[in-house]
Specification:
Length: 94
């Protein structure tokens, strides 16, 4: 379920069980590029400003089927965001 903000919908917003940190999940269907880093940072900034207490942190995670070279270079400079690749294995058994 999306989390609606004044700057757009966050795909998934998670808070740790101990309420210490937030995690912004940005989901992409296919290949992710460096543009999604800016989008994720924008949502992280909004969460930090509107939902976090002084001791809470915000991290980000981009989830996509593939990443391009631009994304790899952009993420080298943003340690608070990580990339995870998803794979789908779909079979019909009759």
């Amino acid at each position: 379920q999306q989390f609606w903000t004044t700057i757009g919908p966050i795909d998934i917003l998670v808070i740790n069980r101990d309420k210490s940190d937030f995690l912004v999940l940005e989901l992409k269907r296919d290949r992710a590029s460096d543009v999604v880093v800016g989008q994720t940072l924008r949502y992280m900034g909004w969460v930090k400003e509107h939902l976090c207490s002084a001791k809470q942190e915000v991290k980000g995670c981009i989830i996509a089927h593939a990443e391009d070279e631009k994304l790899q270079y952009a993420l080298k400079q943003v340690p608070s965001i990580r990339f995870m690749k998803y794979e789908v294995d779909f079979r019909l058994v009759g």
